[in-house]
Amino acid sequence: QVQLVESGGGLVQPGGSLRLSCAASGFTLDQYAIGWFRQAPGTEREAISGIGNNDDNTYYRDSVKGRFAISRDNANNTVYLQMNSLKPEDTAIYYCAITKKVRGMNIAHYMRSMLRGGAAAWGQGTQVTVSS
After folding, report:
1. CA nearest 122: which of 12, 9, 24?
2. Cα dihedral angle (30, 57, 4, 120), rounded to 10 degrees?
3. Each residue of 32-62: pLDDT tens digit?
4. CA 26 from chain center: how many Å?
5. Residue 84 and residue 29: Cα distance in Å, rounded?
6. What is the pLDDT of residue 52?
7. Exposure string (b/e) for 51-67, b if CB count within 10 Å is 16 or more?
């Protein structure tokens, strides 16, 4: 059974850091492109970061560039999102999702596809709250 489980969320003060984990089971993670997304109350789900066909093919939303870093640990079938210099506007539920790799596809396409219903699986989400 394909399953994604996020963890690592919580309450943090502005300027603080969190590391989110997305643990995969039931499949081999390196066969998939992976994305991190978030959704705040009353807003649409948005793409935050992703890894495509190789670890050089990454995506970051403009508002998180330089603050967030995505990484993949294939040995442990886990993807991480290191979030530094957190701001109140980063408050949201964070989700990870996967989609099968396609030769020649870039990460921007994968992210759009997953947002539009093309994900093979989604995690249940983890709440991140940035507040003093």
Report:
1. 24
2. -90
3. 999 999 999 999 999 999 999 998 999 999 9
4. 19
5. 25
6. 95
7. bbeeeeeebbbeebeee
Structure letter (DSSP) for residue 54: S
- Cα–Cα distance measured from residue 97 to residue 124, given in angstroms and rounded to the nearest whole number: 10
Residues β-bridged to residue 51: 34, 58
The label of the residue with tokens 């886990």 reads: 78
* Low-confidence spans in the chain with pLDDT less than 70: none
pLDDT in the model for residue 1? 82
| pLDDT at site 2 | 86
**Mapping DSSP to helix (H, G, I), strand (E, B) and coil, where does residue 114 land?**
helix
Single-letter residue type at 25: S
- As a 3-state breakdown, the chain gives helix, strand, coil percent values, each rounded to 5, of 20, 45, 35
What phi, psi does 15 have (nearest 5°)?
A: 90, -10
Average pLDDT taken over every residue of the chain: 96
Cα–Cα distance list, 23 to 81, 117, 131 (Å): 12, 21, 27
